[in-house]
Specification:
Largest sheet: 9 strands, antiparallel
Distance between the termini: 57 Å
Number of strands: 20
Shape: globular
Number of helices: 10
Radius of gyration: 20 Å
Order of helices and strands: EHEEHEHEHHEEEEEEEEHEEHHEEHEEHE
CATH architecture of one domain: 3-Layer(aba) Sandwich
CATH topology of one domain: Rossmann fold
Bound molecules: adenosine-5'-triphosphate, magnesium ion
Helix content: 25-40%
Oligomer: single chain
Structural class: alpha+beta
């Protein structure tokens, strides 16, 4: 017999991804400490312990490391230099390694790393000083992406012509891909965060991501994806090559474009649990959150098998900002195999991710019908009173 290890997992960031990690950690007899500047952040209410500090606060990050056995992330925007120091001082194991985060959160470095490993991706050029005319090698229309800091489509602009308004800041310019469909593959990789040596790697089958094209934000995730078995196989092989190129430990979501001309291209990587994997909680043998904890703790990885077709709906804030109010809460619960996940965030703001709903079914069509029903019945907005 052994004592239950009760290892402590430090999590940088207190959003909904952290919240769902905390819920699983508790079930697995792991303890959690979450760092976030906002005392109202959703994960702080579910963590065993908290550190209230900015994501870039060196003393706060040191405290997080000192109170944890293993530190991981739900967001990439943090002081990776400080975390590298704390890892080499032996204060905590940090997974994925801070060096991996540095190469991923800067879209230019991410693209360069993928290019070095011959991973297929959209054609791109660096555009550190965006001007009126396109950078050398690019022509209208093309896509501008801020190198750092963008999320939920906020650092992305499609530039149609010289009159289109540009984003401010160092960027990359990419070919505008004619998209047939967008997929995501979640790859779990366990290994040594310091040396990058692989122990095991397992991938979930691709899911399809449907977008609101005006906001560039994902509204629905569908499993199975509906693309051919050949495309699924190629997508998984490309996603695994991308994850291996960075030496990521933990789960990593690889967002992929299937282009109208048949190319499969890496859009971007998120080296942590991801919105595209929320449906793994109900639909798969092992959720992405459990898989991430298994990977960073060096435990055997779980099965990524899809058990039931599923559709996940993001619950985005409506037109107004304010205290969250909804309609259809009661009616939603009458839909079979439909579950609400509420992140308990306030205020509700336009486009803000407030929660999600997962619908299962015998077939993807049945899950989709239930998702349509849920979307028709349930609505969110912000109220001023
Ligand atoms: N090169 C491209 N060609 C066509 N569409 C693109 C291109 N790059 C991005 N998009 C569209 O914009 C969306 C958002 O882009 P991207 O994933 O790079 O932004 P993000 O803000 O970092 O993402 P996230 O929403 O994952 O936080 C993509 O999912 C896709 O729909
Ligand atoms: Mg994206």
């Amino acid at each position: 017999m052994q004592r239950i290890p009760y290892r402590t997992i430090g999590i940088v960031g207190g959003g909904q991804l952290g919240l769902m990690l905390c819920d699983v950690a508790r079930r697995m007899a792991l303890k959690t400490v979450v760092l976030d500047a906002n005392p109202q952040a959703p994960a702080l209410r579910r963590a065993d312990e908290t550190v209230i500090a900015d994501l870039f606060d060196r003393a706060g990050l040191r405290e997080l490391c000192d109170r944890s056995d293993i530190v991981t992330f739900e967001i990439e925007h943090t002081d990776t230099g400080a975390l590298s120091d704390f890892a080499s001082e032996g204060r905590a194991v940090i997974a994925p390694s801070p060096a991996v985060l540095e190469r991923i959160r800067d879209k230019a470095l991410q693209r360069k790393t993928l290019a070095r490993h011959d991973v297929p991706q959209p054609r791109y050029v660096l555009w550190d000083e965006p001007s009126e005319s396109p950078p050398d090698g690019m022509a209208f229309p093309f896509v501008q992406k801020l190198r750092t800091g963008g999320y939920d489509g906020r650092g992305v602009a499609v530039l149609q012509d010289p009159a289109s308004s540009r984003l401010q800041g160092a960027s990359i310019a990419e070919e505008l891909v004619d998209l047939e469909v967008e997929l995501a593959v979640i790859v779990a990789r366990s290994g040594d965060p310091a040396t990058g040596e692989t122990r095991d790697m397992r991938s979930y089958a691709p899911v399809r991501m449907d977008f609101d094209s005006s906001l560039n934000i994902c509204t629905r995730v569908v499993a199975p994806s509906g693309v051919s078995a050949t495309v699924e196989r190629r997508a998984i092989a490309i996603a695994e090559a991308a994850v291996a190129a960075f030496g990521i430990v933990g789960v990593c979501a690889v967002e992929l474009f299937v282009a109208a001309d048949g190319r499969i291209l890496v859009n971007e990587l998120a080296p942590r649990p991801h919105n595209s994997g929320h449906l793994t909680i109900e639909a798969h043998a092992t959720s992405q959150f459990e898989q991430h904890l298994r990977a960073v703790c060096g435990l055997p990885l779980g099965s990524p098998e899809l058990l039931r077709p599923a559709v996940m709906l993001n619950l985005l804030g409506g037109a107004h900002s304010g205290l969250p109010v909804c309609r259809g809460y009661h009616e939603l619960h009458a839909i079979p195999e439909t579950r609400l996940h509420w992140y308990d965030k306030s205020p509700c703001a336009p486009g803000r991710k407030m929660g999600h709903i997962t619908c299962l079914g015998d077939t993807v069509e049945e899950a989709m019908k239930r998702a349509d029903q849920a979307e028709g019945l349930f609505a969110l907005d912000g109220s001023s009173d």
